[in-house]
Amino acid sequence: xxxxxxxxxxxxxxxxxxxxxxxxxxxxxxxxxxxxxxxxxxxxxxxxxxxxxxxxxxxxxxxxxxxxxxxxxxxxxxxxxxxxxxxxxxxxxxxxxxxxxxxxxxxxxxxxxxxxxxxxxxxxxxxxxxxxxxxxxxxxxxxxxxxxxxxxxxxxxxxxxxxxxxxxxxxxxxxxxxxxxxxxxxxxxxxxxxxxxxxxxxxxxxxxxxxxxxxxxxxxxxx
Length: 223
Fold this sequence. Notes:
- The protein contains 10 helices and 6 strands.
- The protein is α/β, with parallel strands linked by helices.
- Its EC number is 3.1.2.22.
């Protein structure tokens, strides 16, 4: 099921569930962290507490997870080229969830036009005022990056960083992005009001303990 349909379905179920009538927190792991942010932008909740993305690729991915480039020369580049070739075809976008947040920095215009999900929620197709208004209502937006992440490529995507246009090496960070500078999603507003929290932890993708989760997520944001 395409991500857009998943979010629409979850939104309706939550809105119709009386247990969430007064609001809710949302926590997403890996791609789920991207999905809960999209849900917060699109769904007209009465109140949203914390939106927590743990290792979520907020600006998409452009790489093959755990690809051993150093041991198999050109393998990662070759696999990425294959994914590039098929990712933006409609029949792939409709069937492969990962293709819907595949972000090719060397073909930005094609990505913006053909991405079914990511370019829309990141305000790269058209600017949707409702997306910004809804996200600015959250009590906290928490983005967790893993220092040794080899699943989210580049790992800076978990904090809204990404490759610069036409580069697969040079990176920009959140504050350098158009999304932040023009405050298209309200991230700058959340930051200035102390509601944007960028957390970093050692280790590989989603390698964290329950104790870390309790101390860094539950106690500060979910109580």
